[in-house]
Amino acid sequence: MEAATKERELSGDKAQRIVDAMRTSVAQRGAAASTFEHVAKEAGVSRGLLHYYFGTKERLLVEVVRRDADLRIARLDQTLGEATTVDDVVDVLVSNLTDMIENDPGFFLIIYELFSAGRRNPDIQREVGQLFELTRSHVADVLRAKEAEGVLKMRFDGEAIVSYLFAVADGFALQALSDAERDNRGALEAGASSARHLLISE
């Protein structure tokens, strides 16, 4: 785990440039073609620095996902915090998903790449699993806070609902990205109805 420790020690402008460069490279070339050489050149750092701090491309991808998750959680905190009805909550969840699919498909490409990498590398699998668990727990806590406010009345435990909704979102994203011409409005409406059912118990 020494490489992971070095990864977390990287801070400041160079760290952000490296992560942003990998993010950009994945969007342009895909995860498989995003080499340390490409990333180092675009970040304006030596390739050796990437190897020293991250060790492998997969570990750098983990950091990209971690940073993305932090940003998305911050946005969710703000928008869900303003929700006053269950429809507001569902609209926030659906709009966040559609925004990622339409404007940031690279996020899902990285997730799928890390899933494959995790099958070969238990350390990567563990780190990604822990990251997902933290994200699920955080969103579940936000929903519980909404329930305490009287906005929601969940039918199941918050983490169970979030796990289900994330699984649906991941599958929906995979289908949407596999067929960009497909009209997904009906599927989105069905998903929103399912989420509403889980979040409000009459």
Explain how this protein is built.
The chain is mainly α. It has 2 domains: 55 residues, Arc Repressor Mutant, subunit A (Orthogonal Bundle), CATH 1.10.10.60; 141 residues, Tetracycline Repressor, domain 2, CATH 1.10.357.10. The protein contains 10 helices and no strands. The longest helix is centred in the C-terminal third of the chain and has 27 residues. The chain is elongated. The N terminus is likely disordered.
Which regions have little confidence, pLDDT < 50, spanning 5+ residues?
1-8
Query: What would you call the shape?
Result: elongated
What class do helices, strands and sheet pairing give? mainly alpha
- How would you characterize the largest beta sheet? none
Short account of what is shown:
The chain has 10 helices and no strands. It is mainly α.
